[in-house]
Prior knowledge:
alpha/beta
Amino acid sequence: MGTILLYIDPGTGSMLLAAILGILTTVAFAARGLLLKLKFFFQGGKAHAEEKKTAELVLFSDHRRYASTFRPVLRELEKRKVKARFLTASKDDPLLSESFSGITTEFIGEGNLAWARLNKLQAKVVLSTTPGLSVYQWKRSKGVKTYVHILHAVGSALGYRMFGLDFYDAVLTGGPVHEKEIRELEELRGLPKKELRSVGCPYLDELKTRYDEVKKKEPQRKTEGNVTVLLAPSWGRSALLSLYGGRLIRALLETGFDLIIRPHPQSLITEKEIVEPLMKEFPESERLAWDLSDDNFPALLKADLMVTDFSGVIFDFCLVFDKPILYAEDVFDPAPYDAAWVDHPLWKYEILPKLGIPLKEDDLGRMKELINTALHEEQYALGRKEARESVWSNPGLGAKGTAKALVDFLRQEG
């Protein structure tokens, strides 16, 4: 029997291999897509039936920690007799237990179950603090006319992960700085202009009201000789605990001041390998406390100074509690964020030197000196005033401005 030899030239072979890989990849993605659809069907099919009814207004929160943003807005909507649905992906969201007359509250599940509900939602207007609409699992529903985002931090509108606001129709901002940032990004990406409303900041208003009530009842605390430092980092590779970890905690303890360490909530989820060893190495004592609660108010109230990086809590501390900071300099990596698109420092980094003292690795040995300087320099009080004017429009009226904007959007949709 003769031998048959087949020859395929290299070019044809490469094309054939690419075709085979393409087919296999297509099949794999098709199978994955089918699996997700089946999962959504069995997990969310019943829930989807609930979404056949069109609501006028829906407010969605992906985590209970945003209750301080939604609570005052929901109360203001009730005053205006605006009916709405509040949906949350946190089964322990505190708003689920509050009584509203014209507003329904509902836990819609976590993860894929929540996204399945939202992706089939029927509503004229949807308000949310969640970035990444139509970027991650949450897709625009054909049954929703207008998606509105409200900023849940006042530091920067460019601090979200890439494309965080691109697919929203409107954004409710805290002040003129945010509007400038959003318009700049729209121009760079060739995006259609969103409707922007500078409404203020409901959660800062709530925080300020709470702070004022406490200060009326408590005598003025002294800082001299009785200093409490709050270490409140953000999360990720550029954040303080990732960069300095135990060295920073040890340096702060060596000052002799009391120390509260409050890791970012996301660190407790995705950076356990960093946080848990540090908690073991530095256990709680009379001078050291780990704060893992959802409510940051007690820690912010007790602290005289905060050590942080690029966390949005900077502005809670400086604008409401009117206290100085030490901040890590040059640690922010803009690569994953919308900030990577602009060729200038974000406003929050331009204002930081006016709010407190930059902290470098070489400064770890003189923490006490830096803390004492920051506590007594008058220039930082002036910087806090400038920051308030830039990103906190209409102090005390954020909920009213938000509710009015939502009513306007409803009217626009008929």
